[in-house]
């Protein structure tokens, strides 16, 4: 609590995982590859991905169907400009030499291990995690789970392993929360997905410590398409964390992952992520949860680094009295267009949702909150509230809010508030009168602005997010 308070008040955060610098994330790693697909998407590439994972026939059929859907759908034209993304120049599969779902960190190839060592993955596992997965390009290179959780029936595996070991369960849920017809990049994901995480928590099992997966891109002009599938049975509790990064090349890369979460009756799920891609990356991720009666889903996220982001985690409140909370922060710096938000669809009776969105814009960056609150006729007595705040740190940047509210239940209660503004001179004057430099004063204001989001993250990740934002602010916070 002391550390958390220090972070929220603008003090120096504790060091996360390792010494963090932009160079740490942007630098390319020297890794040998067993196979990198030629640029461009074809049926041959899709078949090669499926064969490399030794998949059942139904998965290959789904992939090929998704490929047809992808080809039939246009690029979305309602958000950031995607014309700079050349899908024919992207490589869709890359297998590092010696990669595999290793159970021992010692078995991971040294060239890959060095990257995750620098990011502190093994050390974090020892100290605070119930389980950890690490993916490098298309392949999961390491996966582990505490023995006592495995004995309770918890499954935490690489998706390509789970599809063989737990085929029926995977088949019953895969691309069910996010249908392949949902949009062009959902179809692309279904066609070329590789790696990712499968988490299953049996009825009544409570996992006190978080489980983590970290995804690293390394290949130039490449696409990463990990699939995260989480199933919580009734009365289960879990917290899952994802982290992401990619090097800077000067050529476009694509991240089009997919997260599907199924929350059972009275179950509670928290999904946290800090996505820190390079400015070369188009981050077009899809995340969705279906929540049953009295269940609860919480999304906590930080979005930085990518040149273009389109990300709107969605909660489908299917069961009566189900609820959702979305908490997020986005930072748009020079050359970045960050289009973030949240979607909540109320179906069950007496459902409730809360959205808290914070954005920062600097250096000509564009930050947009784009949200949907959709209360169906069946959702009697639904309650929803959204607070969207943008802080503009100079005179050339932009912050927009585009809420979409649809209410078909006559007894629903909905509140929406959106603000955008700059750091006030009065705040700066007060803080500088307390012997703070101008940069320190501005950083303290920013940290206070972000405190509602940062306080929801686990301590290690709150510290990481603060350090990443401090790097973005460095030199001229306003």
Protein model, in words:
The chain has 478 residues and is of the alpha/beta class. The protein has 2 domains: 31-311, no CATH class; 336-422, no CATH class. It is 26% helix and 35% strand. The protein is built from 13 helices and 26 strands. The strands form 3 sheets. Strands 5, 6, 8, 9, 11, 12, 14, 15, 17, 18, 20, 21, 23 and 25 form a 14-stranded mixed beta sheet that branches. Strands 4-3-7-10-13-16-19-22-24-26 form a 10-stranded mixed beta sheet. Strand 3 and strand 4 form a beta hairpin. The protein is globular. The two termini are 30 Å apart.
Question: What is the structure about, briefly put?
Answer:
The protein is of the alpha/beta class. Helix content is about 25%, strand content about 35%.
Strand content: 25-35%
Number of strands: 26
Structural class of the secondary structure composition? alpha/beta
| Rounded mean pLDDT score | 81
Helical proportion, percent range: 25-40%
Largest sheet: 14 strands, mixed
Backbone CA Rg = 21 Å
Measured distance between first and last alpha carbons: 30 Å
Number of helices: 13
Q: Runs with pLDDT <50, length 5+?
A: 1-22, 31-35
Number of domains: 2
Overall shape: it is: globular
Attribute tags:
2 domains; 26% helix; 478 residues; ten-stranded mixed sheet; alpha/beta; globular; 14-stranded mixed sheet
What's the structural blueprint in terms of helices and strands?
Blueprint: H1 2-8, H2 22-26, E1 33-36, H3 43-52, H4 57-72, E2 94-96, H5 110-119, H6 121-128, E3 131-136, E4 139-145, H7 147-151, E5 155-158, H8 159-165, H9 167-173, H10 184-192, E6 196-201, E7 211-216, E8 223-224, E9 227-232, E10 237-245, E11 253-255, E12 258-263, E13 268-276, E14 281-283, E15 286-291, E16 296-304, E17 308-311, E18 314-317, E19 323-332, E20 337-340, E21 343-346, E22 352-361, E23 366-375, E24 383-392, E25 398-407, E26 413-422, H11 425-432, H12 438-454, H13 459-473
Parallel strand pairs: 3-7, 6-9, 7-10, 8-11, 9-12, 10-13, 11-14, 12-15, 13-16, 14-17, 15-18, 16-19, 17-20, 18-21, 19-22, 20-23, 21-23, 22-24, 23-25, 24-26
Antiparallel strand pairs: 1-2, 3-4, 5-6
Helix pairs in contact: 3-4, 4-10, 8-9, 11-12
């Amino acid at each position: 609590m002391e550390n958390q308070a220090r972070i929220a008040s603008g003090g120096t955060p504790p060091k996360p995982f390792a010494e963090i610098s932009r160079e740490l994330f942007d630098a390319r790693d020297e890794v040998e590859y067993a196979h990198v697909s030629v640029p461009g998407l074809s049926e041959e590439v899709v078949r090669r991905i499926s064969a490399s994972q030794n998949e059942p026939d139904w998965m290959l059929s789904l992939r090929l169907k998704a490929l047809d859907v992808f080809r039939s759908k246009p690029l979305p034209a309602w958000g950031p400009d995607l014309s700079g993304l050349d899908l024919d120049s992207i490589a869709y599969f890359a297998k590092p030499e010696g990669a595999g779902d290793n159970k021992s960190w010692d078995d991971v190839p040294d060239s890959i291990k060095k990257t995750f060592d620098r990011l502190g993955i093994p050390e974090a596992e020892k100290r605070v995690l119930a389980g950890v997965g690490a993916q490098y390009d298309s392949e999961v290179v390491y996966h582990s789970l505490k023995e006592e959780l495995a004995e309770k029936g918890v499954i935490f595996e690489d998706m390509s392993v789970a599809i063989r070991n737990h085929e029926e369960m995977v088949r019953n849920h895969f691309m069910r929360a996010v249908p392949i017809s949902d949009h062009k990049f959902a179809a692309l994901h279904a066609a070329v997905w590789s790696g990712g995480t499968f988490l299953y928590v049996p009825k009544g099992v409570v996992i006190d410590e978080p489980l983590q997966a970290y995804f690293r891109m390394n290949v130039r002009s490449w696409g990463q398409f990990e699939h995260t599938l989480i199933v919580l049975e009734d009365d289960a509790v879990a917290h899952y964390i994802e982290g992401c990064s990619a090097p800077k090349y000067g050529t476009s890369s694509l991240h089009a992952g997919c997260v599907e979460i199924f929350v059972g009756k009275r179950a509670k799920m928290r999904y946290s992520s800090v996505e820190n891609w390079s400015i070369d990356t188009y981050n077009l991720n899809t995340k969705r949860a279906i929540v049953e009666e009295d269940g609860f889903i919480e999304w906590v996220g930080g979005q930085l680094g990518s040149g273009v982001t389109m990300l709107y985690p969605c909660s489908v409140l299917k069961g009566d009295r189900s609820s959702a909370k979305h908490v997020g922060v986005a930072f748009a710096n020079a050359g970045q267009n960050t289009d973030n938000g949240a979607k909540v669809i109320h179906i069950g009776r007496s459902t409730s949702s809360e959205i808290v969105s914070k954005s920062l814009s600097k250096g000509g960056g564009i930050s947009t909150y784009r949200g949907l609150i959709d209360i169906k006729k069946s959702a009697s007595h639904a309650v929803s509230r959204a607070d969207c705040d943008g802080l503009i740190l100079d005179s050339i940047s932009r912050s927009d809010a585009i809420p979409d509210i649809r209410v078909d239940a006559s007894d629903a209660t909905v509140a929406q508030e959106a603000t955008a503004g700059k750091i006030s001179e009065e705040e700066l004057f007060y803080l500088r009168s307390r012997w703070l430099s101008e940069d320190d004063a501005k950083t303290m204001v920013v940290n206070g602005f972000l405190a509602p989001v940062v306080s929801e993250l686990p301590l290690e990740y709150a510290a990481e997010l603060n350090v990443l934002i401090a790097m973005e602010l460095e030199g001229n916070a306003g």
